[in-house]
Design goal:
single chain; about 200 residues; mainly alpha; globular
Length: about 200
């Protein structure tokens, strides 16, 4: 995101405000231009089209997610760190609203769906790192490690489950102010703690 020119970043920030206020249907080039106080010609100049702007909005949400992960976990992670992160994300109702507003549009637009699928690959890896279980790439001596196909499949499966947990709790918390996030997280710890511990011990 930092590689975008200042005007493009300003337009992107305005687009996020419009998305929060009016939803995806209200996210028009004219509305974003008015919010950013720029000429509407600057939006296709920087983002090609409205579809391009929506795609970059997704990228910015995933970028913020990555910054959140690394800011909280640093180079490593653990199950308590992962659970704390889910709670922080669930408390950020506006981010949940923006994320799911865009996800719905991705279900209707194949190009956007493919882009989101690629971003979810990164999301699963980030989530594994947050939980303290990731695929080792080299030994202590710095030489590349061979990882079995079975191990890769297992890591991919647990990454998918962790993402589903984070997304599901976030959605329920955004919909229901009385949703018991702490109770759900306690159950997550019970259900997946042993599986994560086994995966970590296999590293």
């Amino acid at each position: 995101m930092q590689s975008l020119p200042p005007t493009a970043r300003s337009i992107l920030e305005a687009a996020r405000r419009v998305l929060a206020q009016r939803g995806l249907e209200g996210l028009t080039i004219e509305a974003v231009a008015n919010e950013a106080n720029v000429s509407r010609t600057l939006i296709p100049y920087h983002f090609t089209s409205r579809a391009g702007l929506v795609a970059i909005l997704f990228d910015s949400l995933f970028h913020d997610l990555a910054v959140s992960v690394y800011g909280l976990a640093g180079p490593g992670g653990s199950l308590p760190t992962f659970l704390d992160w889910i709670k922080r994300e669930a408390d950020d109702v506006q981010s949940q609203h923006d994320f799911f507003e865009l996800i719905v549009s991705a279900l209707r637009e194949p190009d956007l769906a493919r882009r989101i699928a690629a971003l979810y690959d990164d999301y699963r890896e980030l989530t594994l790192e947050m939980a303290g279980v990731s695929e080792p790439v080299e030994s202590n001596e710095g030489s590349p490690l061979q990882v079995s196909d079975e191990r890769r499949r297992e890591l991919a499966a647990i990454g998918s489950v962790l993402v589903a947990i984070e997304d599901g709790i976030g959605l329920q918390a955004a919909l229901d102010p009385n949703f018991d996030v702490d109770g759900a997280l306690a159950m997550v710890e019970t259900m997946i703690g042993a599986a994560l511990a086994r995966l970590k011990n296999d590293d």
